[in-house]
């Protein structure tokens, strides 16, 4: 398998964690977002939306990080990244979507660029925008976790929800967001980071990492 | 089952379509977003994120529209809303996420309110923002559909991807977005709207509809 991705892209990091949890080898193919390599012809031939990550698995090309992780879970079921019961699966997917739909899309690079370049908002307002969605979004996740606290987001093993949560915390830390209001999230984050699948795939450990 | 939702919320409409495709009865419980009913104590006790929709199925409370539709597909498998093969499932999920992660989160009511009230951007700039994400996001979806055109987003039966696409087109039309650059999407939209599951659950057909 080949993973087209970028060290600092949190959608990419989600998939790196899932591949590592499943013990799958892959070629790491960097796509430099700040240099706009995702908009080059070579990459858009693979992914018309010009977004990372893209997974190539033989004949299959899969986009969208959550779809990639579900695909990996279906094609390589062990260890499972979703619980066995429908209610548990729904809870894990909802937690992942609470981050992937309510926080991350508002704060990715192309959106921040559009805010400052096209909407002409100031750097200070951009940072305020960023922190608002991270802090309010994580607060909603915290309440869901506190309703049924466990070692990981759901139960005693990492799931899709943890694959999505951990990269979001990296983003939050990079933009100096408040995290003191989400203690259960931070306990889960620490439990995840104790595992090589999470720590060994973090942005600073990637082949294309920059200071 | 009970569905807490709002006639004009496109995330709500996705779930109404899925319930109708599966022929499932439910109580329609309106939550008025413009009056901020989603932030009242009664609703946040059910959904801490204060977002619609929420599905209550006996003991289970499920949030996030895509998680709800996957839950319905697992608990009521006929007719299936995902293909049988892993590659097809990945394509359908990616199409759904292309809209649910890349377009819709940037344009929902709370985000538009934050842009105008907190970031103090003008009404014109807000509309320009809205149309930018709809038009560029749908363009990426169009290219994916044109790579393997079919009656619905994926094949000859409606899937999760159609449940997400159709409400997005309603939003696009409401905000006068360009749609002449996405002919395959509009063919799929027309095929969907010919079915009562899509037309009978549209915003104007809801019990809480307003002019």
TrEMBL record, chains A, B:
It holds the Pfam family GST_N. Residues 1-80 form the GST N-terminal domain. The gene is maiA. Transmembrane segments: none annotated. The lineage of its organism: Bacteria, Pseudomonadati, Pseudomonadota, Betaproteobacteria, Burkholderiales. Its EC number is 5.2.1.2. This is Maleylacetoacetate isomerase. Belongs to the GST superfamily. Zeta family. Keywords: Isomerase. The keyword Lipoprotein does not apply. It is an enzyme of class 5 (isomerase). GO terms for molecular function: maleylacetoacetate isomerase activity. Residues 85-211 form the GST C-terminal domain. PANTHER family: GLUTATHIONE S-TRANSFERASE YFCF, MALEYLACETOACETATE ISOMERASE.
């Amino acid at each position: 398998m080949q993973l087209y991705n970028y060290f600092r892209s949190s959608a990419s990091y989600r998939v790196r964690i899932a591949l590592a949890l499943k013990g799958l080898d892959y070629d790491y193919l960097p796509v430099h977002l700040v240099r706009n390599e995702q908009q080059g012809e070579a990459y858009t031939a693979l992914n018309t939306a010009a977004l990372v990550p893209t997974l190539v698995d033989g004949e299959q090309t899969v986009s969208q990080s959550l779809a990639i992780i579900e695909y990996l879970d279906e094609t390589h079921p062990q260890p499972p990244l979703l619980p066995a019961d429908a209610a548990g699966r729904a809870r894990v997917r909802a937690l992942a979507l609470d981050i992937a739909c309510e926080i991350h899309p508002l704060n990715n690079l192309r959106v921040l660029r559009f805010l400052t370049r096209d909407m002409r908002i100031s750097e200070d307002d951009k940072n305020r925008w960023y922190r608002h969605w991270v802090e309010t979004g994580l607060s909603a996740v915290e309440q869901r976790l506190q309703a049924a606290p466990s070692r990981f987001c759901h139960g005693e093993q990492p799931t899709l929800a943890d694959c999505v949560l951990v990269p979001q915390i990296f983003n939050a830390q990079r933009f100096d967001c408040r995290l003191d209001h989400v203690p259960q999230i931070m306990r889960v984050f620490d439990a995840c980071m104790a595992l090589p699948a999470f720590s060994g795939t973090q942005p600073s450990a990637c082949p294309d990492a920059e200071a």
